[in-house]
Here is the input.
Amino acid sequence: MADALIGLGGNIGDARATLDRAVAMFCDGADVRLVARSSDYRTAPWGVREQPPFINLCLRIETTLSPRDLLRRALAVEKALGRDRAASRRWGPRTVDIDLLAYDDLTLDEPDLRLPHPLLAERAFVLLPLAEIAPDRLIGGEAVRALATRVAADGVERLPQRA
Here is the structure.
């Protein structure tokens, strides 16, 4: 099984409930097994500023799927939860966004799939939840914990667990 890191976010409707559904749909327990889930984080919008804050979280999974099949699963879950990538504005509001952040130690550079995720080291809304569940994981030769100390965490707030 491969070890993969996944980022999820959304800011339309009840984002936390939508993300809970996305995790349940994505992690079926067979092809994709949930190893760890971070806390939810409220984050200021990135890219397009005039929109509601996002809820973000990260997952560590084990999978029998290839990176390409894992991406297909992510896109299918997004679509099932109301996201139309073709009609959405880049970095704009969305019900759910599922990003493959890393897959084992694989480096991949294809037009629609780059691993590790090319913007991972710049995004506190990814690195803070990731450091919570995989602090010693090496990405690009550096531990997630170290990467997280170098990003500005302004506007990123860890949310309390829900009952």
About this structure: The chain is about 25% helix and 30% strand.
